[in-house]
Amino acid sequence: MKSMKTVAVLLFEDFETLDVFGPVEVFGVLKKEYYVTFYSQKGGLVSNSHRVSVDSKPLAEIDSKPDIFLIPGGYGTREEVNNPELITIIKAVSESSNYVMTVCTGTALLARTGLLDGKNATSNKRAFEWVMGQGPEVIWIKKARWVVDGKYYTASGVSAGIDMTLGFLKDQHGVDYARDIAFKIEYTWHEDKANDPFGIL
Amino acid sequence: MKSMKTVAVLLFEDFETLDVFGPVEVFGVLKKEYYVTFYSQKGGLVSNSHRVSVDSKPLAEIDSKPDIFLIPGGYGTREEVNNPELITIIKAVSESSNYVMTVCTGTALLARTGLLDGKNATSNKRAFEWVMGQGPEVIWIKKARWVVDGKYYTASGVSAGIDMTLGFLKDQHGVDYARDIAFKIEYTWHEDKANDPFGIL
């Protein structure tokens, strides 16, 4: 356990299913190296409009610095950007984490903390205007599958979270390592983070 | 609710994360048309080795004929093929469902019911020998992203479940409809079910 990397996954009501479970599948293949834990503001079951209900620990129980903090998107972010208590916790956990990953509109939650100000980031192009409004000082990249700026990894919509997580593994372990994981889960990885085949902007 | 299609998702200990949540994401985009419910043998929280813990209803509470019965794979299938009580329930629910979908080694569970005997089916190529052993009378297709035989849809490994679910939507609603969903979740859909880019057999 000591030598394992810890992945803290944030949940909130009406998270996007695949924003969470795409990256979790990738880390799950590496379950001897990455240890995933789900957290939410209050802990307990967290549900979404896809009728998924997932168990979680309260965020207050994060007692160490996660290696990776994963923030998904989903319609719930429209509520949570106006939840100052959660944004405060997201800021604190993001600051203490070695890496922070956001998927889709999860970038809006991170943007609200101010931690992305002056940094490059992206999000779902179909919600881009709204996301940009959550962080006017962020350097928003309109065409990108995912963006890396220091410890911050931000992805476009839904499946882009899988591409970004594989990209993170490439950065950590090399491209062959990441390709091997993609092959195991039979996923056609978009290796080039600048190539945004689903961009509309 | 009356006009919605019902999707019953089977869970068991150590299911594969993306086998479940790939298809659930696709149906989730269509949440006004497809109503997803998670079931397990006893109900309650069901966990896997990726440390995901999902709430479920007991299979005994399925009180109507689901439109779609989804059976995921995962290491847990190695145990469950030897769980006659579960196989009996899977057989009954499969018989009463309009469509049955399996992902990865989930095909092994369906094969154990005998319902696939004499039918075409596929599974994960990296577990193919073992899966074939669970249904010697099945016509196993060694090169396929997914296979359709009547009401039975069987997919290759993990992400192939997303391709198959989109393929199901194509069969139900046309190819443009399915492509629109793939675009929304930013997923590069393998449209040709005979094309198996991850095949090793």
Summarize this entry quickly.
Chain A has 201 residues and is of the alpha/beta class. The first copy, chain A, has seven helices and eleven strands. Chain A has a seven-stranded mixed β-sheet, with helices on both faces. A two-stranded antiparallel sheet of chain A has the order 3-4.
Can you describe what's shown?
Chain A is built from 7 helices and 11 strands. Chain A has helices spanning 17-29, 77-80, 84-96, 106-112, 128-133, 160-173, 175-184, and strands spanning 5-10, 34-40, 46-47, 53-54, 57-58, 68-71, 99-102, 120-121, 139-140, 146-149, 152-155. In chain A, the strands form 3 sheets. In chain A, strands 5-2-1-6-7-11-10 form a 7-stranded mixed beta sheet, sandwiched between helices. The first copy, chain A, has a two-stranded antiparallel sheet with strand order 3-4. The first copy, chain A, has a two-stranded parallel ribbon with strand order 8-9. In chain A, a hairpin with a 5-residue loop joins strand 3 and strand 4 (53-54). In chain A, helix 1 (17-29) packs parallel to helix 6 (160-173) and helix 6 packs across helix 7 (175-184). The longest helix of chain A is centred in the C-terminal third of the chain and has 14 residues, at 160-173. The mean pLDDT of chain A is 96. The A-B interface holds A 16-18, 20-22, 24-25, 27-28, 31, 35-38, 45, 48-55, 124, 126, 156-160, 183-188, 190, 197-198 and B 16-18, 20-22, 24-25, 27-28, 31, 35-38, 45, 48-55, 124, 126, 156-160, 183-188, 190, 197-198.
